[in-house]
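cron nightly-structures :: item 1 of 1
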Amino acid sequence: MNVPPAKIHFSESDRKQILQRIDECLASGQLTLGQYGRQLEEYLAGYVSSQYAIAVNSGTSALEIPMRALGISGGEVIVPANTFFATALSVLHAGGCPNFADIDPNTFSIDVDHVRQLINDKTKAVVVVHIGGIISPRMGELRELCKERELFLIEDAAHALGSTLNGQQAGTFGDVAGFSFYPTKIVTSGEGGIITTNSEQIDSESRLYRDQGKDSFTSNVHGRLGYNWRMSEPHAIIGLAHCQHLDEFIAERQTVARFYDTALADIDGVTPVLPPQGCRSNYYKYIATIDDWIDRTALKQMMRDEFGIGLSGEVYERPVHLQPYFDGHYAEGMLPVAERICARHICLPVFQGLTEQNCQLVVESMAAALEKQHVAV
């Protein structure tokens, strides 16, 4: 392809350092819960400005573990309909029931007004998802609502490491947050996730749950129904190397985003989703909404086949409440904003090493593809 939808970048020096540290790790025999996992936790706690950080084996675990620690079993958790299935799956695995809320079309985040309507006697928590790295300007309002109704606020910050709102880092707005280091993320450990919190209780409980519910690594006394949610030392080594470049990677993505913002102004039917005032997005995704006359499937196919441009995966193509798992519980039309937004947006390529020439090719190809569609219409 001329421009792929995404690409992972590790510098030669990082690869050498990673391999050296993994070799040392193999020689020592300390392959899990060792020094590199602790270093990664310390680095990210400092970066995010949270008191605690707990390394785990996936972003999904980074949500389920806190939900178990917070005791949401038997209750409802309000979840935005526009999110990855794992957000709802975490609620289900922790023994709760997801109650889906509609979203704000300007930020793709949960609609605070709808959250207020959904709260009932069974509600125990609310999950907010920072889609594509955008933090809603209504976070303060949502936090106050949760505090007033004595609900836990959980951040699904899988997309948002390094994003800020009024200078405050994603992962510090709620009681607890979960980040993902899946290979598509801005920084990756291969597989992995991080929990951040200022709660000593959530920190200690999370460490119990991630290691089979044991009191300590060397103990054989199990006080919680935990699981093997540990992050291995090789994964921590990879993540630690990549995290050192987070600000550099974000700066690159912001440069790409500024180019797209300007270029898309001249393309009919495509409107960038701009971060709200006060939000510094990490641009995990560059999102744009599309007008009704545009056939998204045909556009993506034409961009790929005729121009060698891969548009990134949507966030998300189908809202969670319309996933087959929830058949019989929700019907099309129940959450209209989420349903429309999921169907009417695209994500342009954005990754480390994407050049201005690449970006120019993307927008020129899109303009040509849309012109063909427009003529056909």
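cron nightly-structures :: done
The mean pLDDT is 96.
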